[in-house]
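Dock adenosine monophosphate; give full complex structure.
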Amino acid sequence: MEVVTRASEMKTLSCRVKESGDVLGFVPTMGYLHEGHLSLVRASRKECDITVVSVFVNPTQFGRGEDFDKYPRDVERDKAFLEKENVDILFIPEKTDIYPEDDIEYIEVDEKLTKTLCGASRPGHFKGVATVVAKLFDIVRPDKSYFGQKDAQQVVVIKNVVKNLSLPVEIKVMPTVREDDGLAMSSRNIYLSEDERSQAASLYKSLSTAKGLISRGNKSSEEIKRIITKILENEKNVKIDYVEIIENERFIPVDKIKDNTLVAIAAFVGNTRLIDNTIINGKNEE
Ligand code: AMP
């Protein structure tokens, strides 16, 4: 595995891959890798000739008071995981290669897609995500790029950027990888104390209970929201940020749950903010 730290070198390598006619797959991450990330890597390895993984803790997607400074970082650990997966290139850009100036030019993101869910709780977050992903695409020039359904809003925002900027990359979305008790894998799970860790399983529990009720005919958003809220509120360290039931991809609230409805939650477990979601009868349904 080649480890590249400069954007210019990465661009040269990407051009070489392009010239050879190989298909380039790309997995952007913030590191501290887990099986969720590795599922994206494996999908890319299966479908593409060359796989590039980036590790960059992107400062512009963290708000003031969020966990940028304490976000877990362990490059040696990440390298070992990626070597084992036979990744071709690990790109660990320097901050100045991504943001050469202190004054950053941001990509505009469609407000209709970001005024809800995590965008409402984390103002500016998706502007940072869209900008860094566009910059990474420009450097890596992937044919396909792999994202996790766990970050449902991120997927929609990125697809929208790709469409509106006519970027020549195919966005592939992979299912959420979970721990045995259903907790969605996340680099942030490391923050959880033992007690919080067991209470964090309530996020998945609430979603699967909701899904069961919906499949048995309860289509009322209001009722399903109430049931999810009750399950989460039962845990003393869980504080709800949002419970939303909305049309997937357009993010319009729905009263009656139908095909391709997104049930999305965010909650603080202790001080750690976790998210999860499920799509009802959608093509990404797990
Ligand atoms: P992050 O390092 O958290 O920015 O995540 C990098 C990529 O991995 C994003 O596309 C995430 O959606 C994806 N990802 C994170 N956690 C999971 C998971 N549990 N299952 C599948 N994909 C995930």
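Observed: The first strand starts at residue 2 and ends at 4.
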